[in-house]
User: Fold these one by one.
Assistant:
Number 1:
Amino acid sequence: MTKDEINGRKQALKTNLDVFIRDALTSKPKIDMLMAHYTMKGLYHYSFYNSMMIASQGGTVCNSYKRWQDAGRQVRKGEKANIVIFRPSGHKVKQTNENGEEEEAWVTSGDRFFLSSVFDIAQTDGKPLEYEHNTAGASPVTFDRAKQASEKLGFPVQIKYMDGARGSTDGATVSINEASNDIDRVKTMFHELGHCLLKSTGEAGKAHNLKEVEAESVSYLCMSALGIKYELHADYVANYAQNHAGNINIDGILKAANKIIRLFE
């Protein structure tokens, strides 16, 4: 492909991605498709933005030819890698790890990226994939770990009794109701962090419901990425977002969710 053709394809992918994101935030099945590969054991290695790239092109769980082989699956003969992602340019170097052993590491070259083709699981056969988290009643992320993530982002957390509310924030400190169970505290923590990172608590001129949609979108993306099963807020996002789809701060939601998710990698 020529340089102009590559740039044209990048622009087309970006346009498609923007449309997909707006649509996905009002559709629980599409959000679940977006997060599919996060829930598979041993497969997660893509950035949050590449997850969206894959889903916007109709993919679910994708890998390179070699990575599928490493996972015990084989790309079927004749299949074409029609889904593309962005990969950072760079090179391998040898370094010594903390155990004194020599290993190879990938060093990126600045902020340059190139398009790389991958195969969807539907194009492969072999060993069945396993879910990372199989127990619906237990959270794979403890509240203490979520609390540490909040504090790393610069938002201290206090636990206290709150009459009727699960949590709240003034944009600087997060409060969580001591009466909530662990999984609900984690979900609430992500919601309040959404407010903090979006700086929506003091944002004048924006409807309260819209602020809640954005914070809850952050929470749902984080919960989905970390394999935490919590259904109520998916409907909450869909119901409200349908009325505010044109005004939602899509870029802010994605950046906030990405900041939180990266702390758990």
Number 2:
Amino acid sequence: MPIRPIDHGIFAASGAGAPGAAYFGGGQISGGTRQTKVEKFAYPDDTRTALGTGLSAARNTLAGMANSGTAGYFAGGYVSSGATDVVDKFAFSDDSRTTLGSGLPAATYGLAGMANWGTAGYFGGGYTTTYVTTVYKIAFSDDSWSTLSTGLASTSSGVGAMANSGTAGYIGGGSHWPSYHTTMNKFAFSDDSRTTLSSGISPGRDGVSGMANSGTAGYMGGGYQSGGPTQSVVDKFAFSDDSRSALSSGLSSARSYTGAAANSGTAGYYAGASGYEDTVDKFAFPGDSRTTLGTGLASGTGYLAGMANEG
């Protein structure tokens, strides 16, 4: 049975009336214009609204993760001048935004985010002035930063991440040109030690996106394979033994650099694409059947990030 935020009493501390929702932020639209917008898809009816206050700066190839029931974070990315270290925090009680006084320890884009609800969030991989293995940890109690002593197994940008909250987080895929990676790094939340799964993603690709049905399974979808083509495959990793299978129905179209978010126990979402799509695919848990939302993103957007306040 999935361990959901409400089972930990997290919602009780977050203020009444903060409904669950998926959030997709930043990215760029056709023509290359970077975005500040943050779009919210409310559970359970998937209605879309745009937050009155978006990101503090227009950026793409950023990362998102959330302390479900409390706040979500969008970190890093690429702005007009290059990589940024900015971290915007959205309080789920009213969707108000603050920008952390201390951002990422290094300006980074092409990174991925995951979270251990109630304890800490993680941002790993990406590109600074070079490809990196670094994984940063932010403590939710005071938003203070540390750097894990052991990072990713290989330098990678365009990685994806997912988490089995309370147990372990996973960062996988990505590339260090001209190599495209299949590796799945697993970080035990008890001590942040890293192992690598015997079975990684298939095929090796960057621009992959991850989301999770916490307590049950994680999903790594889409991405770009060396030499092409762009992929529609969604790999599923069972948290009980980390075994991998491929969903019989992948994404509704081949695409990379989507945003991903999930409502554990109910459904996960993949939104947008590097080809500037507005499509939002929804995968119902636990059967993994796919539908496409009638109302997608407000405009075709790629290189965006997702995070969720779980319902």
Number 3:
Amino acid sequence: MGSHRQIEKAAAAWLVRRDREEWNGAADAEFQAWLSASTAHRLAFIRLQAAWQQAGRLKALAAGMTNSGAPLSGDQLGMLKSAKPVPRLPRHEDLRESEARDTERFRMPARRVLGMSAAAACLAAAVVGWFAWPHQGTAYRTPIGGIAAISMKDGSTVTLNTNSDIRVALSETERRVDLEQGEAFFEVAKDPHRPFIVRIGDQRVIAVGTKFSVRRESNHVRVIVTEGRVRVERSEPQHPAEIALVSAGGVAVAGVAGVLVQDKSLSDAEERLSWREGIVVFRETLLSDAVAEFNRYNTRQIFIEDSALGSMRIGGHFRTRNAEGFVRLLADAFPIRVEEDESRIVLHHQ
């Protein structure tokens, strides 16, 4: 499927080619084949297309692409055009630049950086706070709606999702990350002599070299693996039944009753991690669950006034920070009346 950077470059190349070259049936067939090859391809193309349209860098494109490859509806295209560009993730080096200027307070001020993705889209940098806890490792935190990529000294990379908090401690025998809250995606550098351990309360996820995400919720932990294999266990397992191995494509949910592992396709696992692209994907999802997901990324919260609305099921690709566009689309497609002010959005049955 290629790396994230390679996919971004390919998506950008298709955008330029569709805009500047003579477009014929053979080129379109090749483009459709590329889109169909991977969910990551489709997400990257839609994201860059929206960013280019926002910046006025392309002529209006005839149509976008849905998950099935069919043209987007007018409502969906309108939603993409109103979407904000996805920010470039600040790297660990970006965070370190301010450390020397602010060591007394152990906190880095918020900052914005302008970056270029595949010479195609200018993306505003996400804002992230940084501070150090002496003798307890280094802590990183993202605000609501923020996403940040952090490069660790061992060569691993951590991508923090919205409103997330981790603490990193490296030693000669292990690499440890405590996930205090939120969600993180880990790309672990191989080091057989130092296992990579993510601790979440009384649960821990152990890897040597792999790619996986961990999401901490009120009563369980969700783990998604996209490469390699990880071990999910209690911090002090009492018997082997409390240990579960999760391979690429697998999704594990760990709670007080144990660990449940589901084997999914790799494309499904990647789709569940589309938040890294600033997108959430719903498939026959309860509206109540979709609203809860949007509320993770926005300070202006959505409320469902009528509980019957929460049982409706919806599907589609939506930008995490475009709650207003999501609500407008709901109101157009369903018998929903929207009431909103500066602090909240309320959904009523119409």
Number 4:
Amino acid sequence: MLSKNRRLVIVGERSGNTASRAVGAQMKGWEVCWSPVFWGNGLPAWRRVPQYRLRNGPDVMLYNQSILSRAIEIRPDVVWVEEPMFLYPSTVLELKRKTNATLVCAYSDDPRDPAKKSQHFDRSIQLYDIIFTTKDELIQQYSDQGCRAPTKFWKGYDPERIFPLELTLEEVEKYRSQVAFIGHADFVKGHSTRLTPMEALARAVPGTKIWGRTWQQVKWPLDLPGVIHAYQIDGLEYTKATCAAKIAVQIPSRLAHDTHSSRSVEIPACKTLLLAERTVDHQMLFEEDKEAVFFNSIPELVDKAKFYVSHDEARQRITQAGYERCLRSGYSNYERMRQMLRIVEQYKTGKWIST
């Protein structure tokens, strides 16, 4: 058993990027403990959906009680919350009082999104010592609302799932594309923010493919068959589709106010060319036209896609450089967690500086 000052309790799912970050913490000498499983796991829809919408109910109450009991039992140095929507302010306060732990919220979602809105989180902001956010504009907002140390949260990739994968002939045949987009249609006020650019791209570049469940709700042109694959792909299937594309497009979500996401680093980490909207975050992550390619407009998106699809040497040069940048600059979840835990330790010793 490690000493108390290296013990971490994670409130979140033991899967995906959260689990990957946990591995990163363990690699840096932290003892990772998990809170009870998420309250909604395994519940029938008739019981889960009303509580999810209300952010409250008997299962949510039991979940809060279980989290608190677990933390009191473990007495960690840090409580690391990745799912704050259902955590009562009273629970957050009791976590501080009864464990004296540093309270950290690593929240990549946007609390302004109606689907993510939670009065519990809004009322808990002032109780957290640190809130990591991917949204630059929320750093000042969290500070104004009383969070002691809001700071930047850079998304990463899971190196156990995201890597240049050698595909079989059958997998190449199934997933191959000239240009791929993997993600939801991003509906804002009933309209997909990604429909117009992706339609223009599909018309200009034969062999464009789109994967994502909500694309079945989009009115896609009938004269562009075979582009939409209206289902979600995850895990190694996502990796295979990314690796099988010459180019993968990243259009940050308007609904989530994203300026980068996990896909921003997952694509080059698969050794596929990243063609991304030109945002400040993307420009900080990759050197333009050397490690990734950016666009500001639909004509620029189309022109660059057409160019790099047909110029293999130029595309492969940028692809290789982007892949090397991911490794060199520590864009994996393991390294991202190490970076965040360093900030936590600086905060605890009074050396934290706002970013």
